[in-house]
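User: Is it possible to get a 3D structure for a protein together with its bound compound? The compound here is FE2/S2 (inorganic) cluster. I've pasted both below.
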Amino acid sequence: MKRRDFGKICASMAATAVAGGPPVALASQRESYPLSGLHTENHQTVTGETLEPGVPYVFFYPYISTPCFLIDLDTEARSGPTHHDPRTGEPYTWLGGVGPNSSIVAFSAICSHKMSHPAREISFINYRHDAVSFYSNAGKSEKKQRVISCCSERSVYDPADGARVLGGPAPQPLAAIELSYDNNTGAISAAASYGGDMYDRFFEKFGFRAAIEHKVNDPAELVGSKTLVRKLTDYSRQTIKC
Ligand code: FES
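Assistant: Yes, that's possible. Here is the predicted structure of the complex:
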């Protein structure tokens, strides 16, 4: 099934309160795709225990050639804040982390500036668990741990805050990947994409190269019911840090 065959669910929803319970954050502009279970190269289901905290992993979702980061931030990542989908101007609320500590997050690994992304040869975009220095959008010199940093032109995102842009030329947050976490088994699946995704532009610009890299005819094919998770350093031969 291809992108154009799949319907969008664009429910205009905001954070709502459930009677007797905590607020439940719902994403607007959510684009639903088939549920895709995350698994390792040994065909093991990925659970919270599979992931090394602070280490960036890569998987492909919702298409066979669109990379995403999967990261255990090793700290709780609460839902919020409200961003705006640049395509529609509609607000959406980031859903926060999943897992026993609400620390596991996933975002599209396609930089919202010029779409730098992890490729087999090299990745200029990386997750940095250690402290990174950068200039904020306010022009101040900052140092911060737990950021997604794109070394192409030095955009910096905060994965504990919906991949909000902290600095650099990126015009919008990374698209968020909604994760489903099974409380009984700990299994993690990818369920949807929301926010300002770059998929159509990615296929226009990189589709030909992505088809060669992934040895497929159609890089815009949906990934299906399972998707492989690898460490970024196992996927890309060279990972750039800046
Ligand atoms: S492509 Fe990422 S900063 Fe330019």
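The mean pLDDT is 87. The domain at 3-239 is CATH 2.102.10.10 (Rieske Iron-sulfur Protein).
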